[in-house]
Amino acid sequence: MFSTPLLDIESKLNADIGEFAGWQMPMKYSSYQEEHMAVRTSAAFFDLSHMGRLRVKGNIDQFNYLIAKDIRNTPVNNMVGPTAFLNDKGGFVDDVMSYKVSDNEFLIVTNAINREKVIHWIESNSSLEVEDLTFKYAMIAIQGRNVWNFIEKIELKPLEFRLNTKFLGEEVFLLSRSGWTGEDGVEVWGVPETISKIIQRLVSVGVRPAGLICRDSIRQEMGFVLYGEDIDENTTPVEARYWVFSLDKQYVGREKIIEQLKNGVEKIRVGLKLKKGERSIPRKDNKIKLLDSEIGYVTSSIFSPYLNRVIGMGYINSKHAIFGYSVNIEIRNKQVEAKLQDFPFI
Amino acid sequence: MSEIVVGGKYKILRDRYYSETDEWILVKDNIAIIGITDYAQKKLRDIVGVELPEVGREVKSGDSIAVVESVKAAADIYSPLSGKVIEVNQKLLDSPELINRDPYGEGWIFKLEIRDKNEMEKLLSPEKYSELIKEKEGLK
């Protein structure tokens, strides 16, 4: 079991620590609903130190063959993502963010659960050199609808990043600007002592700490997937409607993608919206039914405090994927009505 | 001291009984008020929904009587005693988070008219329940 290097300061902030993907991480501080609303109305910060962070060096063409998006024309100091490493059946090895440091150096952020798998996958499919930075730096994200009311406006366009720069007066390894939560904000990597100081600054100006449960509710509102829940080695980006690939170059998994785009897919990921007032939460693998036919299964679901209703996602037979359809989800032998809808929910 | 705190964070009040399945039971005359313990709500994390029993329902001790929906899982609530449900906490339907906020007070779940007071012998004292939590949490 690993533990975030920010545990000390987070415990002082009353973090409720729990286990996620083999890491001890803050799950929440007060309630995930309050933290969620902070992201949607003001600003919050998340500890993401559990996510794998790798430095990859070597021939750009080799890297470009492993990754599903085309990174050759990405300007230096820009992020490419989300994108993915796919297996030869088009299934997700992992979905990742990548950062172009130079033509022969990239940084990659992997899901926590896939860090070692991705290292092994890159090393066994290329001569690229991989260095694991996960335990060297802590990583936080500061995001929210009014984030710039709390922190200095940075000189970065969306998807730009800088290495070895200053943030809130501190020397950090990486500062990037992306809006994974659907809101604007920044991600910061730095040595744990520095990130702890930054957290103190953030708290003192009113940026709220948020845990991984809130991260889950935020991503579900946006329709973003979680590896291991909504996507895995047996799911393709076409089935997941997760546009992380290019068609203009060769890469591992491309043949399957092309085949599915030409011939269509059997199953497709859709959004599920329950009625207001319904507080039963569908759980993973609950059946989705239309009249009496089983047409799919649930992969994620949560109560959205912003929408004040339960939302979720799952896979259904593509023939039934008609937004606006009412379906039933079987929750503990009870039929609960839901509407099929597209993402994002907000 | 009116409460025991286990592991620095799990509160147990001394004025009531407890069950092995983490319910608390506050007995007044022939009526039992029942809810889930501070330990249970902290383990479940954010509670976002509750299914309540019907008023008038007859239950036996050990029957599953209500469901608490949390971000982690749906948890069954078991009736620690036999009897008739005479009242349920309707406030929880709109504000299930009351269980997180005030598990021993506003977060009560249902009231039961006790059938057989002898059943109370198998309920746990606050001390016994604190021992049980220590065991579950490896704090012994």
Automatic annotation (TrEMBL), chain A:
An annotated GO BP: glycine catabolic process
Binding-site list for substrate: E187
Reaction equations catalysed: N(6)-[(R)-S(8)-aminomethyldihydrolipoyl]-L-lysyl-[protein] + (6S)-5,6,7,8-tetrahydrofolate = N(6)-[(R)-dihydrolipoyl]-L-lysyl-[protein] + (6R)-5,10-methylene-5,6,7,8-tetrahydrofolate + NH4(+)
Residues covered by the GCVT N-terminal domain: 8-242
Pfam family, one: GCV_T_C
Keywords associated with the record: Aminotransferase, Transferase
Alphabetical list of PANTHER family matching this protein: AMINOMETHYLTRANSFERASE, AMINOMETHYLTRANSFERASE, MITOCHONDRIAL
Family listed: Belongs to the GcvT family.
Protein name (record): aminomethyltransferase
Organism of provenance: Sulfurisphaera javensis
Species lineage: Archaea, Thermoproteota, Thermoprotei, Sulfolobales, Sulfolobaceae
Automatic annotation (TrEMBL), chain B:
Domain Lipoyl-binding residue range list: 31-113
Sorted UniProt keywords: Lipoyl
Cofactors, names only: (R)-lipoate
Free-text cofactor note: Binds 1 lipoyl cofactor covalently.
One of the GO BP terms on file: glycine decarboxylation via glycine cleavage system
UniProt modified residues of type N6-lipoyllysine: K72
GO cellular component, one term: glycine cleavage complex
CDD domains with a match to the protein in the record: GCS_H
Domain of life: Archaea
Pfam family for this entry, one: GCV_H
HAMAP family xref list: GcvH (MF_00272)
Subunit annotation: The glycine cleavage system is composed of four proteins: P, T, L and H.
Entry function: The glycine cleavage system catalyzes the degradation of glycine. The H protein shuttles the methylamine group of glycine from the P protein to the T protein.
Family under the similarity heading: Belongs to the GcvH family.
Protein name per its UniProtKB record: Probable glycine cleavage system H protein
Organism: Sulfurisphaera javensis
Higher taxonomy: Archaea, Thermoproteota, Thermoprotei, Sulfolobales, Sulfolobaceae
Name of the gene: gcvH
